[in-house]
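Discussion board: Methods & Data

I've been asked by a reviewer to show the raw model output for two of the constructs in my manuscript, not just the figures. I'm not sure how much to include, so I'm pasting the format here to get opinions. Each protein appears as its amino acid sequence followed by a line of discrete structure tokens. Is this the kind of thing reviewers expect to see in a supplement, or should I convert it first? Here is construct A:
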Amino acid sequence: MSKGLFIAFEGGEGAGKSTQARMLVEALDARGIAADLTREPGGTTGAEAIRTLLLDPPGEDEGWGPRAEALLFAAARADHVAKRIRPTLARGEWIICDRFVDSSRAYQGGAGELGDALIVALHEIGSEGLRPDLTILIEADPTETARRLAQRDGDTSDAIGGRSAAYHQAVAAAFRAQAEADPDGSVIVDGSGSAEDVHARVMQALTQRLGV
């Protein structure tokens, strides 16, 4: 049985991660490579329930604080890893994930100012420190991401996507720092241009890094 590979797409709001994750699964399927498309938070029944709590908090307050948010993400990820990611890899299939632990590191650890060590510790406890075989960071110009978000969401956004521009700038800086600190496990892909242009860059990166 061939070894399954774990690819995670990361990036800020409107970077195009979800589109690129879907396009990669379609490209792998065309090559006869079984791949499961999933997302975080989510991917299992329990994790999807937590996703709803995170993105549409109950009550009329200001939502979750950074610590509660980090714990909820870690809990969702633990369920996702145990019930979907590890079993998929054990079957020799690829798993393509729209966000993984680096999102928690960037959002709660970086922009939320909890620090990287705390997020990494939670991940070690909940998911035994599992890392993707390759993390693909999609970066796009803020003007372009704003246009994409307006097209996608209109005047509505979830509890995290609707935070301030300064918050999202801090997220982007944290993502960049993480990728630069892990050149063997991460690749930065230019998210500008059409979805097809970006997909071509993603496939080139996979070929260079994994021989796909």
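Construct B, same format:
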Amino acid sequence: MSELNPLTPEQKKENRTLLGALGLIVIAVAALAIIGFLFLNKPAEIMEGQAEATSVRVSGKLPGRVVAFYVNEGDMVKAGDTLVHIHSSLVEAKLQQARGMETAAQAMDNKVDAGTRSQIIQSAYQLWQQAKAAEEITQKTYARLENLYKEGVMSEQKRDEAKAAYDAAVAASKAAKSQYEMAKQGAQKEDKESAKAMVNVARAGVSEVEAILEDQYLTAPCDGQIDVIFPHEGELVALGAPIMNVLKIDDKWVTFNVREEYLSDMTMGKEINVMIPALKQKEVKAKIYYVRDLGSYATWNATKTTGDWDSKTFEVKARPVEAVPDLRPGMTVIYKD
């Protein structure tokens, strides 16, 4: 069996040189790693928020059908600009009825001082009979619609409109009966006072219906931009139903949800620099004006039983120091600690 050839002195020297070089490389890498760890900068804390703006809801007290919109989503409007037309044939009919009652009450008041003639008594009786007939018709209509509503083939709004018409007819019938009874009794002092009161009641009824009809044309409550329109033309809207939102684009702010350990850098009145990615990473200065605890539902619970604590979340709001016209609600806003 042949023996291995021993290394020559030159080969041994080369091996020692190679091992020495490898050792130096290992030492250098380790040194660089230690130096990098010791001098490594802590990355900046990044907090992500979003831009917001005040939104004013437009609604009215007139239930009816949307006839026409005079604005579109995205349009800029001024306070007082006409936005939408809502039509209600029922309310307009009530207005005519109320005006008729006012005219009748005023005529009766004008005649009461001259005494009660047979023609006046007869006229009052006929008005009462007409009112009673109207009451009977509206009562039957309401009863039919009530049954249809219970069967699920009639909307609640139609049922309510019929109920309102019936209630108005009942009131009109009672008023007409009072006028007839007063005509029979003659013009006493109490009768005169009653006639005046009836005139005032009738005028109040007219004013009430006119106040409701004022909302058939809804106007912009403030300067801003039409954000969203809810119904379409031709749709029925209920009392107080939202029609559209007007965005006050001059009233903007940014909102952050911040853990309480970072609040020391976001105090009330402090100006901070934020970045808006959507605006080509534009840097904007904003002033903090609002800090509020979000409550227990937004608490970060500790994961350890000892050596750790719960951390609450706070809502922080800041307004841009200078106007940012292109800033839109919903845009992401970045704050670096």
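Answer (T.O., handling editor elsewhere):
This is acceptable in a supplement if you add a one-line summary per construct. For B, something like: Helices lie at 9-39, 89-112, 118-150, 156-185, 189-213.
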